[in-house]
Amino acid sequence: MALSRPIYNFLGFYFEQLFNHPVRTKSITSSIVATSGTIVSQILSGQNINPRTVFAYSLFGLIFGGSVPHYFYSFFNNVVPDVQYKALIEFFMERTLFAPVFVGLSLYFLSIFEGKSPEQAQKILKQLYLNVLVTNWRYLSLPVFVNFNFVPPMLRVFVANIIGFFWIIYLADKRRRAAAKKENTK
Q1: Which of helix, strand or coil describes residue 11?
Q2: Where are the transmembrane segments (predicted)?
Q3: pLDDT for 139-174, tens place per residue?
Q4: Cα dist from 92 to 21, 34, 88, 154, 155, whole Å
Q5: What's the structural domain count of the chain?
Q6: How far apart are CA 149 and CA 140, in angstroms?
Q7: Is residue 2 part of a domain?
Q8: Is pLDDT above 90 for 57?
Q9: Considering the domain boundaries, does residue 33 fall inside one?
Q10: Which pTM does this prediction carry?
Q11: What pLDDT is stored for residue 174 in this prediction?
């Protein structure tokens, strides 16, 4: 019982912030989730925590992780008419429009935030983009479908961040392996 009160108070505070300051709240939440995901990924891989990578994911979550999905999902919600299959239409728009753009943003800006040059970031983007996008479609389509069909619009970015936690673990591992492979070929 004693634990439920602080959790209840925190959820009340979170939902109040989400209602009053949606972009800020979603951005901070995304930053926390991205930071946690990359730390977990590094721990699972047995590596020491790389502060530069943690910073890159944290900054990406803060700048892009909350705001971009918020505006995309709001756009979808406003553009798609209230029809019987609205959630299905939004799902297909997310998978065909949002996912390709967001995967590209992720790969490019994570590299930039880690201190790589724009040329290096473009090279990483070209190297990983198609594989990461196809993997995104393969493994995240069902959770995204559930998100659009069963989660209220106000909470979709939050649920997407929870899904994103596991995606970040995968993405961080994929980027780390690509960097290690590049180092081994030198």
Answers
A1: helix
A2: 54-76, 96-116, 128-148, 154-172
A3: 999 999 998 889 888 788 888 888 888 888 887 787
A4: 28, 25, 6, 19, 19
A5: 1
A6: 14
A7: no
A8: yes
A9: yes
A10: 0.84
A11: 79
